[in-house]
Amino acid sequence: MVSQGSSPSLLEALNSDFLACKICLEQLQVPKTLPCLHTYCQDCLAQLAEGGHLRCPECRESVPVPPTGVAAFKTNFFVNGLLDLVKARADGDLCAGKPACALCPLMGGTSAGGPATARCLDCADDLCQACADGHRCTRQTHTHRVVDLVGYRAGFYDEEARERQAAQCPQHPGEALRFLCQPCSQLLCRECRLDPHLDHPCLPLAEAVRARKPGLEELLAGVDNNLAELEATRMMEKEALAQLREQAARVGTQVEEAAEGVLRALLAQKQEVLGQLRAHVEAAEEAARERLRELEGQEQMAREAATFARRVLGLGREAEILSLEGAIAQRLRQLQGCPWLPGPAPCLLPRLELHPGLLDENCHLLRLSFEEQQSQKDSEKDGAGSQVGDETQPQSRDGAQTPQEDEVQILKVERAETPQEDGAQTPKEDRAQTPQEDGGAQIPRGGRSNKKRKFKGRFKSVSREPSPAPGPNLEGSGLLPRPIFFCSFPTRMPGDKRSPRITGLCPFGPREILVADEQNRALKRFSLNGDYKGAVPVPEGCSPCSVAALRDAVAFSAGARLYLISPEGEVQWRRALSLSQASHAVAAMPSGDRVAVSVSGHVEVYNMEGSLATRFIPGGKANRGLRALVFLTTSPQGNFVGSDWQQNSLVVCDGLGQVIGEYRGPGLHGCQPGSVSVDKKGYIFLTLREVNKVVILDPKGSLLGDFLTAYHGLEKPRVTTMVDGRYLVVSLSNGTIHVFRVRPLDS
Questions:
Q1: Where would you tag: which of 71, 184, 347, 741 has the fewest CB atoms within 10 A of its CB?
Q2: Could you give phi then psi for residue 741, rounded to 5 degrees?
Q3: Exposed, middle or buried: residue 126 (CB in 10 Å: 0-12, 13-18, 19+)?
Q4: How far apart (Å, rounded) are the C-alpha atoms in residues 256 and 245?
Q5: 539 phi, psi to nearest 5 deg
Q6: Beta strands, E only, 382-531
Q7: CA 48 to CA 22: how far, in whole Å?
Q8: Cβ neighbours of residue 201 closer than 8 Å, sequence gap 6 or more
Q9: Mind naming one GO cellular-component term on file for this protein (predicted)?
Q10: In this structure, what DSSP letter does residue 338 have?
Q11: pLDDT band at residue 359, thresholds of 50, 70 and 90?
Q12: 648 dihedral zone (left: phi>0; alpha: psi -120 to 50; beta)
């Protein structure tokens, strides 16, 4: 209960940890104040004293210990006064509500005293009702303030009691401190005043406070000003730190984008050079094979004629030889006069020429520079102009750019240009262009313009057609999700006899995934952080292929069977599937009580009891071969999304088999569509293993662009799944799992 007239600061001091020692965490006992104004128990400070010094536990300031020990530190009478109030309450509580009168034993009453009902704030004594009435009637105590004990315990009179408190002299118990010795700056009681401070000028405490308080208030005002400046400086430091982090994040993004651009260009050059190498080798091999066929034919004719002539001359009779002489001679002369092919044709051996900058260890395409921090307004102006595609570059003193700066400039200009702007050829046209068509000129050491043109020609060339740009419905709207790398971990466990071959993934409980390892015949559980959680037992001899988690059950396909087991591995039912399909994709319905499986071009849906709930053919075409199925959880009908290997397309259909959307465009790069996953907003993530990509499509199956590429660490991605609608889990062919958080740009 809070008293109406009490000071809030006094209540806070009494109820907070202000009266607790920061060393022992108990209530202060014999509080001593250090020069840094931190207060601790005398015994606690004695334990910290070492070598004539001690270090303040809070501010870490080193304090010299007086020669007589820590007892010589100043006693905190302010804390002692507050402790007296707290102790008075605590002593009353210990008496279980029945404290004894302090005056009854002095007047010859019972040794324990009667029950106290009042308290004298001046004497700090608990009084019974009779003693309280008499306390007000004596000449010495009639001015004392006597209050009811219940109100005192409740804190109604804390402020009044505080005003009437008198600090006790530590040298003379029972004597209050009344004077201040000015030369010694020491508090004195009446006994201390007599000796040895008798000849020293002393002031009463009230007068001394009036004389010295203005000086302290002036010092306090100066410290308050310093505190305001410190707070302002601290806020500026925080703003500077925030600006540093923001700029570092911006530069980090620029570094990532620039590095991706360079890697993309290098990979494009690699594919182009490898394509030229393959074309050259194929052409040379074809010409060599044609020459070999001609040589083998001529060699066979000459060998057969020589063999025949040698047999006639060795085994024939005179008449036989003479009768065949003309024909043999004519044939041999004909063979001798045949225009034989010359020696082996000169073979053009390929040789790789690297740009000198790639071999120069001092060539830095990415380089950091540091400058002093500007004001917030100037930094905002600079931030608006310092984009990734800036064309401004630091120059040398004579105004010319260095070779390294020129290369960075070329990269940035190239990234800023589009094929439509500079009239560049399409990827197919550029891929078909030979070095002779491009001029065949190497980069001259002093030719800057030629070098720039050579770089641009190389960077524009790609080996595969890029994914189309986002459609008009999403371009510039900021709704296309972006990947944020979360973690990566291997799935091979110590007990595995073979390298993992992950053929199925599915979410399994909160922030967990279930991994189907067909090679080791196991269903492994992992957290999203990569912690191994154990395995779900599978029937002996089963090699799980595709897997889906239902409500308190796990469904998986193995061979030509569909299994439903409990998390403990108990088989609940199994169903035979078609033998004409190598693998059967399994997916859980959004309700969690049904499982769908692809079987020879159609989809079968089973309930938890193993009964066939429905069966349909997507679009009514019997030649569908769906390999992977995921349901659009945002659709109340539970739409199906699958990869069609027969038509090389991705198909989206409703629960009745009606096709909602289908994509078979150039964004697939001619690859067979792989695993599919769907996030909480309905975006479809399609795996293209051959080109190391995961592309993203809208809920109706329209391609939006690339989501993950080789630059994100994808190397032959195999299976994906979506966890909690916002974590895309990707398994690679080597058994490694990458986890990416799907974040919309508008989040």
A1: 347
A2: -90, 130
A3: buried
A4: 16
A5: -60, 150
A6: 481-490, 502-507, 512-517, 522-527
A7: 13
A8: 181, 182, 183
A9: nucleoplasm
A10: S
A11: confident
A12: left
Q: For residue 598, which phi and psi values (nearest 5 degrees)?
A: -90, 130
- How big, in percent rounded to 5, are the helix, strand and coil portions of the chain? 35, 25, 40
Mean pLDDT of the chain: 77
Specify whether the CB–CB gap between 696 and 471 falls below 8 A.
Answer: no
Q: Give 142's DSSP letter.
A: T
Q: What is the pLDDT of residue 93?
A: 52
Q: What is the pLDDT of residue 467?
A: 52
* pLDDT on residue 532: 93
Q: Greater confidence, 388 or 379?
A: 379
- Locate 413 and state its tokens: 């200009």
Assess contact for 696 and 679: CB atoms under 8 A: no
Pairing between β-strand 186-188 and β-strand 202-204 as defined by DSSP bridges: unpaired
Tell the burial category of 501 from Cβ atoms under 10 Å away from its Cβ (0-12, 13-18, 19+): middle
Q: What is the DSSP letter of 443?
A: -
Q: How confident is the model at residue 145 (pLDDT cuts 50, 70, 90)?
A: confident
Domain layout of the chain by residue ranges: 9-90, 207-336, 501-743
Residue 179, Cβ density class (10 Å: 0-12 exposed, 13-18 middle, ≥19 buried): buried
- Kindly state the tokens that stand for 346: 């000169």
Assigned fold of 501-743? Neuraminidase (2.120.10)
| Residue-wise DSSP of 258-305 | HHHHHHHHHHHHHHHHHHHHHHHHHHHHHHHHHHHHHHHHHHHHHHHH
Q: Is the pLDDT of residue 519 over 90?
A: yes
Tens digits of per-residue pLDDT, 580-631? 777 888 999 888 889 999 887 788 899 999 999 888 888 765 544 444 444 4
Q: What is the pLDDT of residues 166-201, one digit of tens each?
A: 777 878 877 888 888 988 888 888 888 887 788 888
pLDDT, tens digit, 9 for 90 and up, residues 200-215? 888 888 888 888 888 8
Which CATH architecture does the domain made up of 9-90 adopt?
2-Layer Sandwich (3.30)
Does residue 490 have a cis bond before it (omega within 30 degrees)?
no
C-alpha distances in Å from residue 535, one per residue of 498, 509, 517, 568: 16, 14, 11, 9
Beta strands in 80-148 (DSSP E): 118-120, 125-127, 146-148
Output the pLDDT for position 721: 94
Tens digits of per-residue pLDDT, 93-102?
544 456 778 8
